[in-house]
């Protein structure tokens, strides 16, 4: 082997060795959580957050999507609802709320079926507001008698609703939401996601700030 070939071979080996060591000793990198996203939480996919069957309040094509995992029998959900309405009123063209059902209480499934029956009658929001207002009278009541009374007061055709609320499509929707609740790891309600980022601190101000951040980053 002549001297030139020897030098070239040593150079190639050195480069290979350097590259291997550089790879092995590279600093660990971790994704940077988005603002408001819970550190260490598994990132849900878009599909597990938004389903085509889910009720949507606000413009369907709004650029900011708030997903609320919601139990109609949850007192916290009732307490948050006025703030959700304020946000929708403040940003009527920019924010939509996708409702995902969670069944943590007695009577939750009955009221979810009632809400879906109301949606078929074009009365989702009026019935939702009515049963939330009346929630102290039916909370954890398996028969949700007071919720039915409130829904009828909001215009629900009870006979038609009771005839439709147990059909296969509504049962499939409930089962699909239950699967996503487990997949995302929902342990309490309400739980909010703003454009896919989970709200860490549950307060109206944090929800509002997360939405404003989403709107700001969208414009940048």
UniProtKB/TrEMBL annotation:
SUPFAM superfamilies: Thioredoxin-like. Pfam families: Thioredoxin_4. This is Thioredoxin domain-containing protein. Residues 26-216 form the Thioredoxin domain. The chain crosses the membrane at residues 5-25. InterPro entries: Thioredoxin-like_fold, Thioredoxin-like_sf, Thioredoxin_domain. Belongs to the thioredoxin family. DsbA subfamily. Gene3D superfamilies: Glutaredoxin. Keywords: Disulfide bond, Membrane, Oxidoreductase, Redox-active center, Signal, Transmembrane, Transmembrane helix. Coiled coil: none annotated.
């Amino acid at each position: 082997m002549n001297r030139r070939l020897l030098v070239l071979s040593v150079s190639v080996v050195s480069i290979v060795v350097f590259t291997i060591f550089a790879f092995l000793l590279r600093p660990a990198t971790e994704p940077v959580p988005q603002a408001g996203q819970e550190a260490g939480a598994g990132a849900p996919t878009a599909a597990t957050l938004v389903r085509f069957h889910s009720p949507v309040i606000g413009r369907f094509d709004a650029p900011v999507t708030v997903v609320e995992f919601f139990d109609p029998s949850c007192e916290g959900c009732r307490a948050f609802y006025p703030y959700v309405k304020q946000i929708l009123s403040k940003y009527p063209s920019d924010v939509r709320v996708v409702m995902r059902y969670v069944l943590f209480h007695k009577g939750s499934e009955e009221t979810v079926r009632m809400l879906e029956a109301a949606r078929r009658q074009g009365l989702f929001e009026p019935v939702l507001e009515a049963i939330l207002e009346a929630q102290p009278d039916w909370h954890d009541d398996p028969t949700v008698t007071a919720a039915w009374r409130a829904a009828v007061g909001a215009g629900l055709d009870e006979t038609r609703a009771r005839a439709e609320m147990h059909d296969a499509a509504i049962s499939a929707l409930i089962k699909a939401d239950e699967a996503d609740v487990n997949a995302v790891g929902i342990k309490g309600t309400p739980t909010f996601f703003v454009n896919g980022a989970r709200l860490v601190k549950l307060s109206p101000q944090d929800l509002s700030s997360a939405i404003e951040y989403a709107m700001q980053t969208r414009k940048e």
